[in-house]
Amino acid sequence: MPRNELMDILFGAFERYPYWSFKGIVEHTKQPTSYLKDILGEICILNKRGPYTSMYQLKPEYKGRQAENAGSSSAAARGTTHAQASSSAGGLEDDEDMLSDDDEDEDMEMVQVE
């Protein structure tokens, strides 16, 4: 299997589940172990301790790309333009300002109660 196709399959697998055992990746991709180890060494971290010991996860730089690709494809699927997305984001900022004002009121009330 070409390298880029295998990487696409791996990124898709890590979208579904963030942690994979080597055995699971071998079964999922049906590729030779030495070939997989080379590619996994480039794009993944092998956890050596903790709850996910001996499991692979994507390196942070690839997690970001994965989210960007998913975000751009979902925006394209909805048909929203960049201008529409930024105008709706502006509305969210106003809501955040209102929330921060409420937090200030709560702080003041707590001071008055004491």
Strand order of the largest sheet: 1-3-2
If you average the pLDDT, what whole number results? 72
Low-pLDDT ranges: 72-110
Largest sheet: 3 strands, antiparallel
What share of residues are in beta strands? Answer: 5-15%
End-to-end separation: 69 Å
CATH topology of the domain at 3-61: Arc Repressor Mutant, subunit A
Classified in CATH, the superfamily of the domain at 3-61 is Winged helix-like DNA-binding domain superfamily/Winged helix DNA-binding domain
Q: Helical segment tally? A: 5
Overall geometric form: globular
- The count of DSSP E runs of length 2 or more, i.e. the number of strands, is 3
Q: Return the CATH architecture of the domain at 3-61.
A: Orthogonal Bundle
CATH C-level label of the domain at 3-61: Mainly Alpha
> Rounded to an integer, what's the Rg over CA atoms?
22 Å
Helical coverage, percent range:
over 70%
Question: Which structural class is indicated by helix and strand composition?
Answer: mainly alpha
- What are the secondary-structure elements, in order, as H or E? HEHHEEHH
Per-chain topology:
Layout: H1 3-16, E1 20-21, H2 22-29, H3 33-43, E2 44-46, E3 55-58, H4 60-78, H5 82-113
Antiparallel strand pairs: 1-3, 2-3
Explain what the structure shows.
- The chain is mainly α and 114 residues long.
- It has a domain at 3-61: Arc Repressor Mutant, subunit A (Orthogonal Bundle), CATH 1.10.10.10.
- Helices cover 74% and strands 8% of the residues.
- It has helices at residues 3-16, 22-29, 33-43, 60-78, 82-113; strands spanning 20-21, 44-46, 55-58.
- A three-stranded antiparallel beta sheet has the order 1-3-2.
- β2 (44-46) and β3 form a beta hairpin.
- The chain is globular.
- Residues 72-110 have low confidence and may be disordered.
